[in-house]
Amino acid sequence: MFGLRKFNTPVLRPNAPFFVGGAIVFYLVAKAQSAMIDSEEYRNDPRNPALSSGKKQH
């Protein structure tokens, strides 16, 4: 009688557009970041994280 009761409250369905939008923004930001790291302007910059980890040889 007392305590928490189970109600059918929709959580996932109303928030689905926000989850999808967040995933799309995350993907696009990651893609833009990798494009900026590989750009000609920052390719040989010592602050480039790809050069400091030794991943890419230019």
From TrEMBL:
Alphabetized Pfam families for the sequence: ATP-synt_J
PANTHER family (alphabetical): ATP SYNTHASE SUBUNIT J, MITOCHONDRIAL (PTHR28060:SF1)
GO molecular function, one term: proton-transporting ATP synthase activity, rotational mechanism
Cellular component aspect of the GO annotation: proton-transporting ATP synthase complex
Protein's recorded name: ATPase, F0 complex, subunit J
Residues that span the membrane, as ranges: 12-30
UniProt entry tagged with the keyword NADP: no
Source domain of life: Eukaryota
Spans annotated as Disordered: 39-58
Chain segments annotated as coiled-coil in the UniProt record: none
Keyword annotations of the record: Membrane, Transmembrane, Transmembrane helix
InterPro entries: ATP_synth_F0_jsu
Organism of this sequence: Hesseltinella vesiculosa
